[in-house]
What does this fold into?
Amino acid sequence: MTGTEIWQLSATELATHTRNGDITAKAAVEASLSRMAAVNPALNAVVEDLRGEALERAHALDQARNNGTTPGPLHGIPVTIKINVDQNGHATSNGVTALKDLIAPGDAPVVKNLQDAGAVIIGRTNTPEFSFRADTDNPLFGRTHNPWGRHISPGGSSGGAGAAVMAGIGALAHGNDIGGSLRFPAAANGAVTVKPGLGRVPAWNPSQSAERGMLAQNMSVQGLITRSARDLHLSMPSLIAADPRDPFHVPMPWRGASPDGPIRVAFSKETYGYDLHPEVDAALEDARAALGDAGYLVEETKLPDVFDAGRTGYRALMGEVYALMKGDVDAAGSQTVRDIFAVYFEEFPPFAGAELLQMMAKRTQYARDWSLFMQDYPLVLTPFLPQPFFKPDRDTEGATGVHEVLGCAVYSYAMNFIGLPAASVPSRLAQLPAGPQPTNIQIAAPRWREDMAVDACIAIEDRIGPMCDPLWAQMATKL
It folds into this structure.
């Protein structure tokens, strides 16, 4: 098997070969490092190359296996880590120049869990300043580009992760999500992800000097971006391993009970006043048809008010950000990010004082409404964005730009506010004037049932196909 073939394998395929001994950890890592050397200069997705450490670890894994150690579930799988999460001995810069020398004194739980499972970290991926944009650019490392073309943003804030994994740099990419930062890059690059629910994946940065705000704690989650939906079933059980440093982590198994009979899926095209683009409409219909063909019962129905939950949740988050984070943004952020935050506060007027506390309390009402609704419809199929993914720097273009990028993404941050899992999977390769562009949809699931959302993604992917093959064919003509 050649190096080119190895980097193209899904994590699930690669893990089968590495665990069986058909491919060494070193060969798997070398293939990804070669791919990174070939494509990353044009993408700037990985901003810290860890090839030296990666090759040493791969060699150690191979030696241990030869000495009789049972390989882990992710044995030799090349992965990337986002630069806003602690990795021992490396800077947790968060895309901020002032933090470029903030060296982590230890590993965050997700880094430990991936390595305990046998994964090999080959690099650290880019994020916007403070990890608070749906696009990825910063003064410290520069812009990340989308492998589909420079007319499409790579998404954010895990934009480096999404671009890297879809370009073939590593089989798994770590990211995180407070309002869509796993799902935006998945949608931008045609990748697959599931935003875990509240309490699912342990989180903490040993480098942090203070605890995050309560909404940040309750809305932000750690996860993975993959090329194949099945790779989430392979990798997420390792990611959710318990860690005592997160006292609110809930050690639930990855798989829940199989439902009795066909699974009912609530389907909605409601966009709350935003225009639904024909290609997004077609992507939704393709996903509905795929799920129906797989035996799901898909029914168009009215959902609990996503717009109210999403907008209330993001205005509450902006209230917390204004009180706890604005000073840091003003002091250490670029003029670009300061201007963007100013427009955020216009798009989502921050709640403050007693009203902020009341809106935080209202979160339980929204969560209860969804919990009751999901007794009848365990899965919910909706748009992620109402239009094809936006161009780079769209959020720097004032109120209309931020409105297009975040204002319309209520299906995204509503799920963060109420703490539900939400998966993103491509269901159509749109043919737009600028070129082909993946179009993802969102599938929400009940608490603790990320596995159900991933199963639905697999059903769609099996019938529509993954986006990596057409992407790699397009990239091959440009390299």
Summary: The chain has one domain: 3-476. The chain has 18 helices and eleven strands. The radius of gyration is 21 Å.
